Structure formats: C-alpha cells, structure tokens
Amino acid sequence: MDALDEKMKPLEEEVWGGKLPFPILIDEGKTTTDLYGIFGYPTLVLIDPDGKVVNGGSLELLKEKLGIKS
Q1: Is the pLDDT at 30 greater than 80, yes or no?
Q2: Domain boundaries, the chain
Q3: Are the C-beta atoms of 20 and 28 separated by less than 8 Å?
Q4: Rounded to whole angstroms, how far apart are CA atoms 3 and 9?
Q5: Rounded CA separation 42/2 (Å)
Q6: Residue-level pLDDT at 4
Q7: Taking 70 as the threshold, does the pLDDT of residue 70 lie above it?
C-alpha cells in the first residue's frame, strides 16, 4: 500500500491540493464494483454516511458535497 500511496501523491496534489479527504477502495474481489455496477475506471462514487450513493459524479459535485473549495 505504501507504493500506491507514493504513486497517488502527484495526483492528490494536482486535483485536490493535498491529501485526499476520502478513502479509496481497492476491490480485488470485485464485490463492491459488482454491487454498484461499476464497469469503467477510474470511477468516482460518493457514498453518504447512510450508505446511499450521492447522484452526480462530476469532480466539482464531489468537491461540493465534501465541502472542498476550489
């Protein structure tokens, strides 16, 4: 996981201006990707604290829902 964290640093800085404010799922068994119907990568899905998917998916909408100012 440390190697993946290192590879993600430039992207986190470029897109988010620092450490990502949310976890990233690595779904080796495809359990979650099958459950949510994810067929392409990369895919952004925002799941609220109640486990419901927040509709939308654009980077700007996700930043807004997470309270991140651009």
Answers
A1: yes
A2: 2-65
A3: no
A4: 10
A5: 20
A6: 74
A7: no
Task: Collect all residues with Cβ–Cβ distance below 8 Å to 11 and sequence separation of at least 6.
Answer: none
- Report helix, strand or coil for 60: helix
3-state secondary structure 4-27: HHHHHHHHHHHHHCCCCCCCCCCC
Q: Are the CB atoms for 27 and 41 separated by under 8 Å?
A: no
CB environment 27-57: b (16+ within 10 A), e (fewer)? eeeeeebeeeeeeeeeeeebeeeeeeeeeee
pTM reported for the whole predicted model: 0.42
Q: Mean pLDDT in the chain?
A: 78
- Both tokens assigned to 41: 């990568």
